[in-house]
Amino acid sequence: DMTDRFRDTFEVDTEITVTEDGDQRHFHLDISPIGSTSEVVEGRVIVLRDITELKEREEELGLLKQVLSRVLRHNIRNDVTVVKGYAEELRDQTSGEESALAETIVEKGGDIAEQSEKAVAVDRVLSSDSRQIEIDLIEVLEESFSRVLRNAGEYELEVDLPPTCTVNASETLEVALTNVVENAVVHNDSATPTVSVSVDCDDPVEVVIEDDGPGIPQSEIEVFASGEETKLKHSSGVGLWLALLIIERSGGDIDFENTDDGA
After folding, report:
1. Residues 149, 239: Cα–Cα separation, whole Å
2. Which of 11, 24, 71, 138 has a Cα at 20 to 30 A from 120?
3. Would you say 109 and 91 are in contact if contact means Cβ atoms under 8 Å apart?
4. 70-79 residue pLDDT tens
5. Dihedral pair phi/psi, residue 96, rounded to 5°
6. Average pLDDT in the 121-129 region?
7. Is 96 left (phi over 0), alpha (psi -120 to 50) or beta?
């Protein structure tokens, strides 16, 4: 069947599946023309590469992603909501040390719920179309500023932005920018955090987001630089990983730098 299908084809790059005795095997098929000149084809090189184990691994990872997504999206979020609800009741009905302990449970429950939501966002980004689209960076930034204000609270914003700036980027670019701005606000020990944002729309486009917080721990910067986590070196959050993933999908780079005044 394959011979008949590709008999008169001189260039092929595809995957095929062969079934024999009830077992399926998957192959990557590559057919390339050969000849003495670019215009005279004298034959073909046919390469079959067995990718059965790779396909099986992809299916296993796909199933694992579905399970983790369901657990993060429903099970953990629902259970944490229950825990927070009971903790709030205990906090309001007690005083002193007991009330303080209940408040800690409420806060930690909120942290777990937030990380769960961001993990779900990672799944959404990985499952989204990897194509880049035209985006007005300024509109996306302004929406990010509003979203952080709604979710993270008050902060002072200083901007130096052109009227418009069109970029080719992932459709999830706003998620990345929101997470970086939010990080500057939430992880900040100032009474009213200050965030400065500037955009240089020359080629390449550069966005600089500065804050007056304590900076990003050096251990986390090393994790982002290496691109992997270990038992001894790991990031405490998901937001910056999410930003890193989206910016790379957009064909860009992201750098973190601590200064005397913040990050």
Report:
1. 16
2. 138
3. no
4. 776 677 888 8
5. 65, -140
6. 72
7. left
